[in-house]
Every structure is written in C-alpha cells, then in structure tokens.
Design a protein that fits this description.
Layout (H helix, E strand, L loop, with lengths): L1 H46 L6 H20 L22 E4 L4 E4 L6 E10 L4 H8 L1 H13 L3 H5 L3 H21 L6 E9 L1
Antiparallel strand pairs: 1-3, 2-3, 3-4
C-alpha cells in the first residue's frame, strides 16, 4: 500500500512542472513579441527624427532659410564669382574688360565676303569669369564662329547689325560658360576690330 500511495505522489509532482512549462513558455513568447514590437516602434520613431530636439529642428530650419536667402541674393548662382564694387560708390560695380587674343574669321552665308572681328568682353564680376573664358576658349570660339557664320549679306546691310551680333555673341558665350562652369558673368561684348572683305 505504501507503493500505491507513493505512486500518486510522484504523479502529482510530475504533473505540476508540466503545467508550469507551457505557461512559462507562453509568457516568454508574449514578452519577446512585446519587446520586438516596442523596438520596431522606437526604431522607426528615432530614424524618422521624432526624438530630435526642437532647438535642433529650429536651427536646421534657420540654416535652410539663410541658405535660401543667400541663393536668392546671388540670383540663383550658388558659387559664382562675386561682383566687384567701386570704392567710391557702393551702388555701382566696377567694369573689367578682357580682349580675346585671337581674331574671329568666318564667311558670310551665301556670299564670297568674309568677316574678321576682334572681341572684348566686359564683366562686373571678379577675375574668375576671365579665367573661365580662357579655360574654355576653344568651345567659346566655336560657338561664336557658328553665330557669326549665320550672318547673311542682308543682315550685314542693316544699320544695327554690329549691335545685334554683339548681343548674340554675348548670349552664346554666357551659354557656353553656363554649360561648363554653371556661371556666365559676361555683361557686354565689344568689337575692338571689325573688318568685312
């Protein structure tokens, strides 16, 4: 009979741990899922900038505003040359000139005449504009010659031909500088020599 009583006592002892294991396992799984969900939520909030201090956000906004003002002040030219002011007058800018060494020679369209010109350019900006002109001289010469060769005898006969040609040359030079340096800067074009033969 002692054996019969011992047997049920062992069954009770063995039964209790079996009931605790599934409850403990479920509890660990539930806690793991909660920790995982919380980690994902906090990670998402952190990387989206939710925990960033308001003062840092305000500082970033202020920096962005200042950058926009600076960009507007430079007429959307982020890193172009700066205009050189005259010392005597704060509202006027100094004119700086550069004569391009080689002359431009081309045929007049549908004619046996040729046009030979020497060109000088003027800018209000610093010497970087002239450095850019020298750096991209071959591209600029090609573009200017393309503009010049489009002239016809009827165009040449007009009284404002030279003014129109200078304006076209200015536009094409600035386009080439914008293409290669993201900044033009040429304010005016002048002919220092103009020969038609």
């Amino acid at each position: 009979m002692a054996e019969a009583e011992a047997a049920p006592a062992e069954e009770v002892v063995e039964g209790e741990p079996k009931k605790k294991k599934p409850i403990l396992l479920i509890l660990v799984i539930v806690l793991s899922v909660i920790v995982l969900v919380m980690s994902v939520m906090f990670g998402t909030l952190y990387f989206s900038g939710f925990f960033e201090h308001k003062s840092e956000a305000a500082a970033h906004e202020k920096v962005d505003e200042l950058e926009k003002e600076a960009e507007n002040a430079h007429n959307a030219v982020p890193e172009g040359p700066a205009k050189v002011k005259k010392e005597a007058e704060a509202t006027r800018f100094e004119n700086t000139y550069l004569e391009i060494d080689k002359e431009f020679m081309t045929n007049i369209t549908s004619s046996k005449k040729i046009m030979v010109v020497k060109v000088a350019v003027m800018t209000h900006y610093d010497s970087r504009v002239f450095d850019n002109i020298k750096k991209h001289e071959f591209a600029i010469r090609s573009a200017v010659l393309d503009v010049m060769r489009q002239s016809t005898e009827a165009d040449v006969a007009k009284s404002d031909f030279r003014t129109d040609l200078a304006a076209k040359i200015k536009v094409v030079m600035n386009e080439m500088l914008m293409k290669y340096e993201d900044f033009g800067g040429i304010e005016d074009v002048f002919f220092t020599s103009f020969v038609m033969q």
